[in-house]
Design goal:
nucleotide-binding, binds adenosine-5'-diphosphate, Aliphatic_acid_kinase_CS, magnesium, eight-stranded mixed beta sheet
Length: 398
């Protein structure tokens, strides 16, 4: 079939779009930043000129500007055949991507109480594209859906069950599109099928999570009810003692302040006191900035602990996979992390690691390693485009 597929990923102050052809080759991508601020702007990748947006630009106006820029490039002469939206929280309702109708919209709104910072802005993106392309099928692709296979022992918190029954308090997991992509890519590189492949997938970007994937299914993951649990992240703390909440409350902090500290002021930023950006931290560490070294050490040690923990869910391990901006690009993080895991039999090839993996199959493990270790670039947009095409046009390539 012919036609294009548009993917839309709305963050609180940003909007990313990508355009694919019917064979799922990426044609273009664009990004709008600082939405809601005076200096909002947008760019199409590979084009030098910035698209100035009006002060306080909304997601809808940014989307219009990006679509019109894609039209100017001659890439979007006809409306797309499908639009795929990243939606962060699908709760227990959505186990796979969903073709959007009124019922689906209501269900996404219902899930917003589980992700008050994310789902409303995802809905804003859906409304914006609906206004722009009223006749095009729109598909919601959920970060949580891939984790619907988590067993009860992995998703229940040890709190009174009524919190789960009444309010849905459980572990959901996020970054599902990336972990799903790792499962299929690792299987391809290993010459296996996803259904017989078991991996540990470490997605390390600004947000970080790790997932144990057994025979193609997510069976444990580090993020929980919200994307705050688990690994150390750019500005998020990951795991802390739950006792910290009433400790800080006794110091006079309210829920909003605790939320801000743990989500926006912690992680690599909080530990280093400098930046949430791993590349910048590695440079600072090179210049003997001690707090930056500490931040990297804590990040890698927590990651190694979680890799060990994920082993408990697997009966075989075909590969440990690193992905995301840090996982794909930081040889230092991979090296420091694997250094904690010698007892399991992981070894690393310095040369391959320095080159971010062998070009043909992403390999970085040493010849004597008990397990394969791969670096695989993630491609969440491609998963969203693929799911959108499959849901909007059943029977197509998919
Ligand atoms: P997001 O989660 O926002 O999509 P990315 O996956 O792009 O983020 O990851 C961003 C992180 O990747 C930042 O901390 C950035 O510093 C880090 N990163 C990118 N390139 C490198 C590099 N060469 N060395 C170390 N860290 C890097």
């Amino acid at each position: 079939m012919e036609g294009t597929i548009l993917t839309v990923n709305c963050g609180s102050s940003s909007l990313k779009v990508a355009l694919f052809d019917a064979q799922l080759q990426k044609l273009a991508s664009g990004l709008a930043e600082r939405l809601g601020k005076d200096d909002a702007f947008a760019t199409i990748k590979g084009r030098p000129d910035r698209i100035e947006l009006t002060a306080g630009a909304t997601h809808e106006s940014a989307l219009r500007a990006l679509v019109s820029a894609l039209q100017d490039c001659g890439l979007l002469d006809a409306p797309p055949v499908a639009i795929g939206h990243r939606v962060v929280h699908g709760g227990e309702t959505f186990r796979k991507a969903a073709l959007i109708d009124e019922d689906v919209l209501t269900a996404i709104e219902d899930c917003a109480n589980l992700a008050p910072l994310h789902n409303p802005v995802n809905l804003a993106g859906i409304r914006a594209t609906t206004n722009l392309f009223p006749d095009v099928p729109q598909v919601a692709v959920f970060d949580t859906a891939f984790h619907h296979t988590l067993p009860q022992k992995a998703y229940l918190y040890a709190v009174p069950q009524r919190l789960y029954r009444d309010w849905g308090v459980r572990r959901y997991g996020f970054h599902g599109t990336s972990h799903q992509f790792m499962a299929t890519e690792a299987a391809r590189l290993l010459g296996k099928t996803p259904a017989t492949t078991s991996i540990i997938s470490a997605h390390l970007g600004n947000g970080c999570s790790i997932t144990a994937i057994r025979d193609g299914n997510s069976v444990d993951t580090s993020m929980g009810l919200t994307p705050l649990e688990g690994l150390v992240m750019g500005t998020r703390s990951g795991d802390v003692d739950p006792g910290l909440f009433d400790f800080l409350a006794n110091k006079g902090m309210n829920a909003e302040e605790v939320h801000r500290i743990l989500n926006n002021e912690s992680g690599l930023l909080g530990l280093s006191g400098q930046t949430n950006d791993m590349r910048a931290l590695c440079e600072l560490a090179d210049h003997d900035h001690e707090p930056s070294r500490t931040a990297i050490d804590v990040f890698c040690f927590r990651l190694a602990r979680y890799i060990g923990a994920m082993m408990a869910s697997l009966n075989q391990l075909d590969a440990l996979v690193f992905t995301g901006g840090i996982g794909e690009n930081s040889s230092l993080v991979r090296k420091k992390t694997l250094a904690h895991l010698g007892l399991f039999g992981f070894t690393m090839d310095e040369e391959l690691n320095a080159h971010h993996g062998s070009i043909s199959d992403g390999q970085i493990e040493g010849a004597d390693s008990r397990f394969r270790v791969l670096v695989i670039p993630t491609n969440e947009e491609l998963v969203i485009a693929r799911e959108a095409l499959a849901s909007a046009t059943p029977g197509s390539a998919g």
